[in-house]
Amino acid sequence: MSAALLEIDDVVARYGQIEALRGVSLMVGEGEAVALVGANGAGKSTLMKCLMGLLAPASGSVRFAGKDITRKATFTRAELGIGYSPEGRHIFQGLTVHENLLVASRDRDGGRGHAEDIYAIFPPLREKTAARGWELSGGQQQMLSIGRALMLRPRLLLLDEPSLGLSPLLMTEVLNRVQDIAARGTAVLLAEQNVHKALSVSHRAYVIKLGRIIKASASSELLADADLTSAFLGAY
Asked: Kind and range of the H or E element at 228?
């Protein structure tokens, strides 16, 4: 296993009196693709919000690259090297594809050089550089959301439900890029309802149910665990 980049220890999170996360612990190593799988409402997006500083944990800790970031602001986490592609994409609809990428860059050249790397990962975007966000298909918008997060050159990329609302073909095209991103050295934490596809593109996985981690294993082992997929993931 790679050296720890992200370490989550016993995190509890609440919405009012509702406990959404109940002592969640997990780890993502350098350059590793890790899946967080479970049904809708299991706590996946809540954990992502805690990791980006959008929701403060009631207790527990989050460490990134050896630093405690549990109470750090969202912009500080981005500066430290955490990229985030949220559920729902949230691209700038009135900007072109290229402008959406450049606006997220901190490179001295305005991001033009790094944008070419994004187009290499997502070739369909290269054909749409001048298209406005609202002109893109759902799959292209998701690629752009991920590409924009990568413009920060993060050490860790958080992907929250990237296949949501996509056709099976586009879902496969988007999720297959997870392996490419990890191969380039960026660790990925993928929160995803499409369990079988998420497991097929990740090294390790955690299964979350009702705010608790109930299983952690190599993704290949979870794919082969018929009892687990039948009991917890059968709908997917």
From this structure: helix 226-232
